[in-house]
Amino acid sequence: MSTDTATDETGVTGDAAEDADELIDELERRRSLRGLAGMAVIVVAVAFSAYQLWLAARGFTFTFSLPLYGEINLGSLQSLQVNSIHVTFGLLLTFLLFPATQGDGFLSRRLARLVPILETRLGETNPVTRGARGVRGVIRWLLLDPDRERVTPVDILLIAVSILTTLYILLDFDEVQLLRSLGLDSGQTIAELVPALSTPVGALSAIGIPLDETSAAFVLGALGVLLVLEATRRTLGFYLMSIVGLFIVYARFGYLIPGDAPIVGVLGQIPQSPWSTVIQNLWYNTANGVFGVPVRVSVQFIYIFILFGAFLEMSGAGKWFIDLAYSVTGRRKGGPAKASILASGFMGMISGSSIANTVTTGAFTIPLMKKTGYRAEFSGAVEASASSGGQILPPVMGAAAFLIVEYTQTPFANVIVAAAIPAIVFFFGVWVMVHLEASRAGIGGVDASDLVGLRSHLRQGWFYLVPLVLLLYYLLVARLTVARSAWYTILAITALIAFVAAYNKRTRWPLVGVIGGLAIAEFLAHLVAGVGVIAALTGAGGAGMAPGAAAAAIAGKMGWLVIAVSFLTLLARSHGDAPLIDYDDQVDDAIDTVTSAVGRPQFGNNRAVGFLTFLEKAMESGARTATPVVIAVAAAGIIPGVISTTGLGPNLTTLILSVAGDSLVLLLVITAISSIILGMGMPTTVTYIILVSLLGPAISNFEVPLLAAHLFILYFGVIADITPPVAVAAYAASGVAKSDPFQTGIEAFSLSLNKAIVPFAFVLVPGVVLLRRIPGVPADADQVYRVIGVSDVLDVGYFVPEVLIPIVGVFLGVVALGATVIGFLYSEVSWAERAAFALTALLLMAPGLLFNSAESILAALGMAVSFDALTFDLALRAIGGVLFAALALTNRRQMKPEAERAEQGDDAAAEA
Question: Angle at Cα 335 formed by Cα 333 and Cα 338, nearest 5°?
Answer without folding.
Answer: 110
